[in-house]
Specification:
The chain is of the alpha/beta class. It is about 40% helix and about 15% strand. Helix 2 runs parallel beside helix 3 (about 75-80), helix 7 packs across helix 8 and helix 8 (about 220-230) packs across helix 9.
């Protein structure tokens, strides 16, 4: 069964001791690709380096809203240069985070707009972070004609029709497996299967039954299994369709990878 983890952070410190083993486990459970997502200039550089080293890893480059206050013309110019690498498939993650507010909200909105414009210039999709900022995120995206994914979707079923009407793709991750996440399972049931991606957001948001430990790409199988259960669909169908969707959105080659 082929699967893709459409949102991982393998460059982050929690993987420093055993990154090779984590990547090996991902291949062993059937992952055919991982999209590693940049969150800063340093993280974006590291994502590109991982993509250069591993044939089945691809990179997105961007600056997370937590670091939006660091976005200036020099940062955007470097992102543009990084995005020219042939294995960079998206801009992001970018967006808005009004939960932690680690950058001023005005700076977040400006950095988000700047990265949307960069993605449009380069013809790349965007990976969007939205936490407690859904109205402002959707307002910004309504004026933008590109493609992308609302990763670790958290706007609830009540906004799903609006998101679908705008043409966006939904990414679901570990929280869909949590006992109280009935709204996310409703989203998993209702979203059209051709508009759905599965992801881990590792090392965060570890799915059940591993919640409380470090997340890793191999656990995307648990996310896909919960989505399949919520939809009353075969796991193989959810895996196949979400893999097709990820390849289509990010322009990934349709190559089957094997374990070394």
């Amino acid at each position: 069964m082929d699967l893709i983890d459409s949102h991982a952070h393998l460059d982050f410190r929690p993987f420093n001791r055993d990154r090779e083993a984590v990547i090996r486990r991902a291949r062993e459970v059937g992952l055919v690709a991982i999209v590693n997502i940049g969150t800063s200039l340093a993280s974006s550089r590291a994502s590109v380096a991982l993509a250069q080293r591993y044939d089945f890893i691809y990179a997105a480059v961007g600056i997370h809203p937590h670091d939006a206050k660091t976005v200036d013309q020099a940062a955007l110019d470097e992102l543009r240069e990084l995005a020219r690498h042939p294995k960079v498939v998206a801009i992001g993650e970018t967006g808005l985070d009004y939960y932690r507010d680690l950058s001023p909200r005005a700076a977040q909105r400006r950095a988000f707009q700047d990265q949307l414009e960069l993605a449009a210039e380069l013809g790349l999709p965007v990976v969007v972070h939205s936490r407690d900022a859904h109205a402002d995120v959707l307002a910004a995206l309504k004026g933008w004609e590109g493609a992308g994914v609302l990763h670790t979707y958290a706007a609830g079923p009540e906004r799903l029709d609006e998101v679908m009407a705008m043409g966006w793709t939904i990414g679901l991750s570990g929280p869909v497996t949590y006992g109280r996440a009935k709204g996310l399972r409703e989203v998993a049931r209702r979203v059209p299967l051709d508009r759905l991606l599965v992801e881990t957001d590792c090392p965060y948001l570890t799915p059940e039954p591993h919640r409380g430990g470090r997340n890793e790409p191999a656990y995307v199988t648990l996310v896909a299994a919960q989505v399949a259960e919520a939809r009353g669909a075969p796991l193989a169908e959810v895996a196949r369709r979400t893999t097709e969707n990820t390849r289509r959105l990010f322009g990934l080659p349709g190559l089957r990878q094997t374990v070394d």
